[in-house]
Design a protein that fits this description.
Layout (H helix, E strand, L loop, with lengths): L5 E12 L10 E17 L3 E6 L4 E6 H6 L19 H11 L8 H17 L7 E8 L9 H16 L13 E2 L3 H19 L5 H8 L2 E5 L2 E4 L6 E7 L6 H14 L1 H27 L3 H20 L5 H12 L4 E4 L6 E6 L5 H12 L4 E7 L5 E3 L6 H7 L3
Parallel strand pairs: 3-5
Antiparallel strand pairs: 1-2, 1-13, 2-5, 2-7, 3-4, 6-13, 7-8, 9-11, 9-12, 10-11
Helix pairs in contact: 2-3, 3-4, 3-5, 4-5, 4-6, 5-6, 7-8, 8-9
Pathway: Isoprenoid biosynthesis; isopentenyl diphosphate biosynthesis via mevalonate pathway; isopentenyl diphosphate from (R)-mevalonate: step 1/3
Cofactor: Mg(2+)
Catalytic activity: (R)-mevalonate + ATP = (R)-5-phosphomevalonate + ADP + H(+)
């Protein structure tokens, strides 16, 4: 068991193109978003394991001795290899008992705690005794906005617990501010993070945890995930309209529109697939020799896809407003994720003056939206020295 403090971070994600079409077997392009979730793991010897999640107001502590007495055989020995089966409903019920939650507890706070307990007990039970730990997780990502916040949480937990329990080596060399694990270790981190995601979401696709573990960009189609090797540095404005929506209801509404008008809707899905392919080709060209016309292509693809998504019925007045405000500044936006509100992305060209960006952010904020200027294609899960984290992150992890 390692005795040093570990500081880990993992990125969120946005879907560039392919939302909704992906449900019908088409390609989706997902990119790592440089808004990150940070975790601090502090080993100690007070006989307690503490979990602190300031973003959602969770502070829980358990006696290690009490957890040690729990029969954790329900977690199955096979888990230690990372080849775990999906958590069963029986395992979930038992974890709720261990956590002291009611049987019907299914709110985000409860699920976040269950994912932690599942990963802690499964990964750490190979130790002679369960370790006493203090874990704080703080995120720049808003929760429930389709930006992969739960996956970034699961990836951070898996990476920190596997490293603390020496199932994988700490990749940090002396003096390095930020380090990353080997491909092989990332595979194991990702397998465990997928288990955490299953605790939270039941039946996730695996895209969110994979993009958070590996970073960069991925193409996803019919359960197959492959990485896009080269990606240019792209800046975006991410806007959260803060309009709540049900992904399930939106997916169902697209399905029913497809059944009602197959000859109208199927070509839209085929066209969205072609947009994803064209975008991927353009990004790969830009990575080797970026030119201003590439941005024009990306902007056009954004506009076409946004119109298609409106035609599928997953637009919203708040997203129309976002597109109008950014268009007034000569910029192009589309929804990302489920639609019906939620988040949108705006491509920021490199020739853009900062005052222009600030004016646009001001206009969007006055619509009641939240905005973040960030980049896509961010590095995946990483381990940091304390000195390399900025003051805001340090303060958040210190609970200030």
């Amino acid at each position: 068991m390692l005795s040093e403090v570990l500081l880990v971070s993992a990125p969120g994600k946005v879907i560039l193109h392919g939302e909704h079409a992906v449900v019908h077997g088409k390609i989706a392009l997902a990119v790592a978003l440089n808004l990150r979730t940070f975790l601090r793991l502090q080993p100690h010897s007070n006989g307690k394991v503490c979990l602190n999640l300031p973003n959602i107001g969770v502070k829980r502590a358990w006696d290690v001795a009490r957890l040690q007495l729990q029969d954790t055989s329900f977690l199955e020995p096979g888990n230690a290899t990372g080849d775990a089966a999906a958590p069963t409903s029986e395992q979930v019920e038992k974890l709720k008992e261990v956590a002291g939650f009611p049987k019907d507890g299914a709110d985000p706070e409860c699920l976040a705690v269950l994912a932690f307990l599942y990963l802690y007990l499964s990964i750490c039970r190979k130790q002679r005794t369960l370790p006493s730990l203090d874990i704080t997780v703080w995120s720049e990502l808003p929760t429930g906005a389709g930006l992969g916040s739960s996956a970034a949480y699961s990836v951070c937990l898996a990476a920190a617990l596997l490293t603390a329990c020496e199932a994988i080596p700490n990749p940090q060399n002396n003096g390095e501010s930020t380090s990353r694990w080997t491909m092989e270790d990332l595979e194991l981190i990702n397998k465990w993070a997928f288990q955490g995601e299953r605790m939270i979401h039941g039946n996730p696709s695996g895209v969110d945890n994979t993009i958070s573990a590996w970073g960069g960009a991925l193409r996803y189609q019919q359960g197959k995930i492959s990485s896009i090797k080269r990606l240019p540095a792209l800046k975006i404005l991410l806007t959260n309209t803060k309009v709540p929506r049900s992904t399930k209801a939106l997916v169902a509404s697209v399905r029913s529109r497809l059944l009602k008008f197959p000859e109208i809707v199927a070509p839209l899905l085929t066209s969205i697939n072609a947009i994803s392919l064209e975008c991927e080709r353009t990004l790969e060209e830009m990575a080797s020799a970026p030119a201003p016309e590439h941005y024009l292509v990306l902007e056009e693809l954004i506009d076409i896809n946004q119109h298609h998504l409106n035609a599928l019925g997953v637009g919203h007045a708040s997203l129309d407003q976002l597109c109008q405000v950014t268009m007034a500044h000569g910029l192009h936006s589309k929804l990302t994720g489920a639609g019906g509100g939620g988040c949108g992305i705006t491509l920021l060209r490199p020739d853009l003056e900062q005052p222009e960006v600030e004016a646009m952010k001001q206009a969007l904020t006055s619509c009641g939206f939240d905005c973040w200027e960030t980049s896509i294609g961010a590095p995946g899960v990483s381990i940091h020295s304390a000195a390399s984290l900025d003051a805001q992150v340090q303060r958040a992890l210190d609970g200030l």
